[in-house]
Each structure stands twice: as C-alpha cells, then as structure tokens.
Design goal:
- The protein is of the alpha+beta class.
- The chain has helices spanning 21-29, 54-57, 67-73, 84-99, 127-142, 154-161, 177-182, 194-202, 208-212, 216-223, 226-233, 264-285, 317-329; strands spanning 13-18, 38-40, 51-52, 78-80, 105-109, 112-116, 146-151, 169-171, 250-261, 287-298, 303-309, 338-350, 358-361.
- Among the domains are: 21-84, MutS, DNA mismatch repair protein, domain I (3-Layer(aba) Sandwich), CATH 3.40.1170; 177-233, 5' to 3' exonuclease, C-terminal subdomain (DNA polymerase, domain 1), CATH 1.10.150.20; 250-361, DNA polymerase, Y-family, little finger domain (Dna Ligase, domain 1, 2-Layer Sandwich).
- The protein is globular, with a radius of gyration of 22 Å.
- The relative contact order is 0.12.
- It is found in: Cytoplasm.
- This is DNA polymerase IV.
Amino acid sequence: MPAQPEQPAIRRIIHIDMDAFYASVEQRDNPELRGKPVAVGGSRARGVVAAASYEARVYGVRSAMASVTAIRQCPELIFVKPRFDVYKAVSAQIRAVFADYTPLIEPLSLDEAYLDVTENRAGLPSATDMARQIKAKIREATGLTASAGVSYNKFLAKLASDHQKPDGLFVIKPADGPRFVETLLVGQFHGIGRVTAQKMNALGIFTGLDLRQQSVAFLQRHFGKAGQYYYHIARGIDDRPVNPDRVRKSVGSENTFETDLHELPELLDGLHPLADEVWQYCQGRGIRGRTVTVKIKFADFRQITRSRTLLSAVTSQVVLAQVAGELLQSVLPVSQGIRLLGVSLSGLNTEETTGSGQLTLFGD
C-alpha cells in the first residue's frame, strides 16, 4: 500500500497587541492621568491624536483624529506630549518576553507583533497557555496589559486579538475559522480598508459570508491581485509565514505646528529637526535610502507630497536636509499656511533586518 503524503503541520500563531499602548504608558507613569481620558500627541488647539486611552475612546476619540475634533468629542480630554524614547524602551522589554518563547517574531509596530510558537523554547504544547503566560510576563515586566489572539494563521490571530480588548485572550481553532469569518463585516478584516470596504459594499458584499460566495475570477476582476487574498481569507485561509526578517520600507518623522507657517525661513526651521530625527535613527541602525519625501499639510487639511530619488543613497544629514528643503521650496509660495511637515526616507538598503514595514516618529 503506497505511503500517504504527510499532512502539513497546523501552525500555532499568537498575535499580541498592547492595549492603548502610548496612553497606557503615560497613565502608568503619571498616577494623575489614571482613569481619565488621555490623548497622546497634538494639543487642545492643533495637531493629531497619536493614541487615546480607553477612557477617551468611550467618547469616540481615536488615533489619527484631529485634536479639534477630539476636543469636540470629549471636552475633558487631557493632551500629553509623546515620549518615544520611553515607548521604545518598553517595547524592548516586551520583545524580550517574546524571545523567551520563540525566535519567530514579526513586529508590526512598537506595540504589536506576530509570534509563531509551533515550535517553541518553552516546550509547551498549548499556544493558549503560552499566550496566557506571555500576557502575565508583560504585565509583570511593564505594568501594562496586552490582548492576545491565538489561531492557526496570521489573519485569524489578528482578528482574535481585537475580539476581547482590553486585556483579552481569544482563540480561533481550525474548525471554527471559516464560521468566525463569515459573521464579520468586511470592514473589520485586516487588509481591507475603508475605501475597499465601500467598494465591496457597492457590489453587495457586506460580510465574510458574502465575500465567500464570490468567485476568484469575480474578485480579481474587481480588486486585481488582492482578489485572490480576499477569496482565501473569506475561507479562513492565510498561508503567510511569520517573517522575523521583514525589511523596513521607510523611516519618517512629522510634526504639526502650533501656528500655521507661511515663510521659507520658518518652514525650514520646522523641517530641519525632522530630517535630523530621521537621520539619527538611520545612522544608529545602519540604514541608508535613496528616496526623500516631504509631506505637506495645509491649513484646510489638504495634503500633498513631493519626492526625489537620488542616484545613490543619502550619505549624511546635510544631504537629507538639503534635498528635503529643495522639495519644500518647490511648492512655494503658498496661498495658505502650512500646519504640518513630514520628512521620510525610503528605498532603503538596511543592515537592520527586523522591524515594521514603516516607522513613523510622530510629532505634536
């Protein structure tokens, strides 16, 4: 009798997502903020919320929301300047906890990561037990809570970690994956943004079950290459491995100013510290890139970018600042004030082989 082919092992994936990370760090370090609505970033008059505490989220305050909108939602909102050096240090503590269990760690940001624990250093057969231990160790090391999702692939593990926040632990077993997916709105799927969800809705696709009823050909006709991905996730299928060698795509820094800027000297004064911050980050990690991009947001929130790709990698902060300054000057004079500037470097050739797809260093 011929030997039966071996079935591929079912992977065990944990997705860890810290709860309101930046805001929780601030509340941990300042007892006066505990139990109160807190926004990290921005100010009462200007800027954008980088993170909101759960007390603020009750009022509808969310990250990336304009500060003026957040204040309308929650007049008692307390704004706190971000401390990214502290957040990075806490993130390193969290990463050290992960490393006790597996070397297969794919960070998505300072506060979020996938872990493949199919084979693990703790020798535990249960990914759920590992997730429970990881949550407890993070709390012991940092005083912060994390939510964990456990499943057999990345897509479902991330959905699971969102399911019982904060301080949650939710498991989606292989037998339950397709049934769990079919009940969700497509806008809840990781990888389906607002515009794509609206397009799906226009086609009569509102839930995972609706999505599952579409053919590959139909989805590819309307959504291109992503159509095949949507076809599979509607069935709870996601073969993407946890990738500890994910290469960073860009490094950026931005700042929203207290008052709108109009003239070149004051704009350059605002631009150069951003270039400095990007360069210092790149210098410390051996990162080099060829494409410089300047982001400009006007007083009416209209946003534009200007980019230039050099023949060789940027070799100094002086070059980075010079190219960024030239890109900025290319849009001057302006008919209205500029409320935000950003500088980023992409086209990276990096010695740093782990990290998120993009690092953004927010300013306020």
